[in-house]
Amino acid sequence: MKKTAREELKNKKRIVIKIGSSSLTHPETGDVNLVKIERLIRVISDLRGMGKEVVLVSSGAIAAGRQALGCQKPQTVAEKQAYAAVGQARLMMVYQKIFSEYNQTAAQVLMTKNTIVDNTSRENARNTFDQLLKLGTVPVVNENDTVSTYEIKFGDNDRLSAIVSALIGADLLVLLSDIDGLYSDDPKMNPDAEFISQVDELSDALMSMGKSTSGSDVGTGGMAAKLYAAKIAAGSGTDMVIANGDDVGVIWDILEGREVGTLFTAHRSPDFTLLDYIESVHP
Question: What percentage of the chain reaches a pLDDT higher than 90?
Answer without folding.
Answer: 48
